[in-house]
Amino acid sequence: MANLLITGGAGFIGANFVHHWRGSHSADAIVVLDALTYAGNRANLDGLDSVELVEGDICDTALVDRLMVDHDIDTIVHFAAESHVDRSITGPDAFVQTNVVGTHSLLKAAKTRWLGGSGQPHRFHHVSTDEVYGSLAPDDPAFSETTPYQPNSPYSASKAGSDHLVRAYHHTYGLDTTTSNCSNNYGPYQFPEKLIPLFTLNALSGRSLPIYGDGMNVRDWLHVEDHCRGIELVIEKGRSGETYNIGGGQELLNLTVVEEICRGVDAAFAADPSLAARYPDAPAAKGGSTAELKTYVTDRPGHDRRYAIDETKVRSELGYAPARDFPTGFAETLGWYLANEGWWQPLVERARTARG
């Protein structure tokens, strides 16, 4: 039996991981530490037994210390992060504070608790991103664990800084750490500012689908449940001090992703006539095509052209393999959003009110 502290566990990937771990490790104790900022949501943890949610900031080292002692924490799984690139461009301070200072706060607390003479077996797993590696040209090999870091946005720079701190605490102090760098995630509970939920929900309401630049940027898409299985393998079997890249094996043009969203929404309306009554403003409700909503907008600053993950290491060492291709994963995701309007509708209304 393990005692886990999961930071950011009320956010998108973190909450999916809590659901996954609870399902596969029913006897383990789980404490979630989440600041419940705009992207954190108590509702993401609904239906879970014996999961304690603590509202608090990872930068509060005294709080982390207390949780580790009170719950005899032996495993930290660190998801908490500011993660939206556009927000990092307009407000980078929060990204440095949470992603760098917050990670250091956790590492300090872990070092004090685990390396203070008790010799307690432990694991600090840090969840990072492929964006720390920068951008790839069309013919460049995919990012591997030895690719030099070249972050191009305040978000990716702050994550790179946190990665280096985790590495340093392992090599300097002997903390038992692992890091995983993932590709673009999608799936249930994703906050509606991200591409796939944003475009899906815009399609249902007849709003435009704004495509940056020429739409030819390339990303490797990873269903969040496959990501959670990969993290689980790294925690359980990964070598201390190592980094593992977790990808979905679905390297797609942004434009291809948008076209799959359009196709999937149109197919859902064709298969279920009741959707037309629920979402009358969708082009598909009126016999049209969701593709009518596509628009092209000015590219964002520092927009990396291509990401791709080489997951050879995690496959060969730990037996990881993604279970879904993108059409299958998106169909599941669309089904979840259609079945959970009560979850996403308040978030969409709040965002629209904030924009005025």
From TrEMBL:
Transmembrane segments: none annotated. InterPro entries: dTDP_Gluc_deHydtase, NAD(P)-bd_dom, NAD(P)-bd_dom_sf, Sc_DH/Rdtase_CS. GO terms for molecular function: dTDP-glucose 4,6-dehydratase activity. It comes from the Bacteria. Its cofactor is NAD(+). Keywords: Lyase, NAD. Residues 5-332 form the NAD(P)-binding domain. GO terms for biological process: nucleotide-sugar metabolic process. Gene3D superfamilies: NAD(P)-binding Rossmann-like Domain, UDP-galactose 4-epimerase, domain 1. The keyword NAD applies. The keyword Lyase applies. It is an enzyme of class 4 (lyase). It catalyses: dTDP-alpha-D-glucose = dTDP-4-dehydro-6-deoxy-alpha-D-glucose + H2O. Its EC number is 4.2.1.46. Belongs to the NAD(P)-dependent epimerase/dehydratase family. dTDP-glucose dehydratase subfamily. This is dTDP-glucose 4,6-dehydratase. It comes from Sphingomonas guangdongensis. The lineage of its organism: Bacteria, Pseudomonadati, Pseudomonadota, Alphaproteobacteria, Sphingomonadales.
